[in-house]
Give the backbone structure.
Amino acid sequence: MISFSVNRQGVNLDVDPSTPLLWVLRDNLGLTGTKYGCGMAQCGACTVHLNGEAVRSCVAPVSRAAGKEVTTIEGLSPDMSHPLQRAWIAEDVPQCGYCQSGQLMSAAVLLRENPRPSDDDIDQAMTGNICRCGTYPRIRKAIHRAAGLMSTGGAK
Amino acid sequence: MSDNILNVSRRGFLQGIVSTGALVLSVRMIPEVLWAAETSAGSHADRAVLRPSVFVGIDTDGTVYLVAHRSEMGTSSRTSVPLILADELDADWKRVKIEQAMGDPRYGSQDTDGSHSVRDGFTTMREAGATARLMLTQAAAQKWGVPVSECESDLHVIVHRPSKRKAGYGELASAAAKLPVPKKEDLQFKPKSAWRYIGKGTSSYDLVDLCTGKAGFGMDARLDGMVYASIEHPPVLGGKVKSYDEKAPLQVKGVKQTIPIKPFTPPHHFQPLGGVAVIADNSWAAFQGRKKLNVAWDNGANASYNSDQYKKELQDTARKPGKVVRNIGDVDTAFAKGGKVIAADYYVPLLAHATMEPPVALADYRDGKVTVWAPTQNPQAVQETVGEELGIPKENVTCHVTLLGGGFGRKSKPDYAAEAAILSKAVGKPVKVVWSREDDIKFGYYHAVAAMYMKALVDEKGKPTAWLQRSVFPPIGSTFALNTTYGDAGEMGLGWTDLPFDIPNHRAENGPAENHVRIGWFRSVANIYHAFAAQSFANELAHASGRDSVEYLLELIGPARIIDVKASAPDYDNYDGSPAEYPLDTARMRRVVELAAEKAGWGKRKMGKGSGMGIAVHRSFLTYVATVAEVEVDDKGEVKIPAVHTAVDAGTVVNPEATRAQFEGAAVFGTSIVRSGAITAKNGVIEQSNFHDYPVARMNEAPYKTSVYMVDSDAPPAGVGEPGVPPFAPAVCNAIFAATGKRIRELPLSKSSANT
Ligand code: FES
Ligand code: FES
């Protein structure tokens, strides 16, 4: 039995502890906002927060989450009010949208650590997140916009 | 959340969750995402009070249900096509609910490819909207006892002009429904000046869901009691299972059984590849179980396929006379006269789609009928393929279209949906087939590898008087018919037979090539290698005579005129567009060249050391695109693309912001092709497997800024999803030449000697 918290709710699960957190979230808990893209920490589609740190859930065994706090895209904000989500909407970032949960979760950690990132900071932080549709310029713009929203009190 | 997404029983997900606290939690946590089983009752549009067309239904509460009959894979079809109807109906977009159509021939073609959803939908949607609007207007006139001619629509209401009385659409729906559906001839379309949405556009209907993790992709489809499957496919095309270990996979916790899938009967078409499926109660267990299958394969004839050798064969063939697909004047006589001849070979490798969401499908087979949920570009093809595989009529196959996590042509081929259906029948439960990234890279319907040979005779000013172009590639037709080695008219028409250059002696040829992997449509298809060769070669000629690339390109295009391609290439199909509506117009081509050059500051800016600009122009999917790329190449040969300027004439643009996004995306997609994309085979087995060895462009490699300039046009709408891709690679490679003097004739850069 493995116990941890997902989006501030406790869960106890009877699963093989080596199962990647990604598949536990998706298949066992039905939290399908977190996506599978590569399974080998190459694309970032599966990014979640583990005790606030961005983690590629496809390579993190669920045992690593034991006793910890997991946040997924579903928990980024209860009502899409996170400045990043607002910025994403304002910039019409998504095309197919499949990568965007992971992009948002990576960007959230970036902004927490660096509230005013430069273009280079953004490139550095977001390079692990692939978008095959090519929304990168809009992601960059949206992160700057979100940073602006946060500095003007938009942050929660 | 759109309305046809219903929740289903959650029991399935609660398995494995033990504590009671978690039970409450799970109910709250599970998002209500499933593309629901609205099989028998039809769509909401069908059930609405007023339903003058299969595409629209209006209820008494004023809700307008619009049916999106094309698939959403990121190109905005699901928003932009219904938006045309909403405009003609004068509907308030806020009161519109979009329903995703199931596969059904009553919607006409649902094939979401070839960049033609807006083009095809433009008239159909306006007719449907005008029909509903006229019926509502007639109902209002009747209600007020006034002439119809005194009534007109405003936003979601009909207004009686003289008295200023108003009635809402919901209020009028029942009365309108009693009226006969008007004839097409009686419809009046809104003038362009009255368009509300066309040309202004709107955000994706799914925008919020896409930013909150709630959107329903194929990967997210779930059914009560379903199991997961992962399939070990034959590593070589046409391979067969000799033996495998049935027991070992069962040692993996969660694995339930293994099921062999029969090999396909050639030609492969959309049939499953065959292999062995592992069924488990979650995706991960199915993946793990596969590792213990220990399959012995009979690889078959394609095991002789090696990309290095094959490349030489293609290049040899490209040096030999091929089948003439277009002829103007007499190239041979012209070359025989002698003079300055320039020739070059170009090469583009196999490419994989690598959609972010790999192929995946959920199927539920019961009593001779099957329901499929799939991220598919063509639900009717799912019905046909699944029907054939299961030996049931296609009418017994229901196909729900989920959102697609990218398509790019891969999801036009429903082999993965057929796998799910076959397995559901075998297991007696709903089965979700999940392809891993490795499966996706290794078992694609690849973009064809191609070799091109170009040769020109130039006069003293450097202008060609004779031009020969030859392309050789395994054709897409090989997917559908055995022994197909030549491209068809469609492939040849993709940037080869329609090259609009003003040259008196001009011949296009195509040489034969056998396929050893599955070949399929890939965003912009043969235009990629054809534009790469033609636009690179044009630039080589410009430099050979010391001329400015833009000025030279304009001279090659020649004076403004309509080109009758069929006169020299009888099989030319012009993307199925009529030459009257969609002529090949060099005035439009010149304009995009001039616009891109002007916006880029061509010839006006001093480029630093290792920096350069390159231009390329290409018409595809009836849209004219010129791209100027700026590159910076460092001492190590590393290429950066700080800016891209793209000028686009796509005729009438319905959704400008979404269109802009498509061209931004095409630049990134094109960057992958230029920098890194290459699929190769050894002994018939694909050598790449995931993003570490099939890299696609990341944020720091993608163009820093892509500016898109749209030509204002009254021409009918043309494609926007694909046309940004073809000119991109030659524009970048021409820029690399300008920056470094190194000519790139082979993609990707990582394989090109110029990069060392
Ligand atoms: S799925 Fe985890 S990084 Fe790609
Ligand atoms: S939006 Fe499609 S992969 Fe990023």
Q: What stands out?
A: The first strand of chain A starts at residue 2 and ends at 6. Chain A touches chain B through 70 residues (CB under 8 Å).
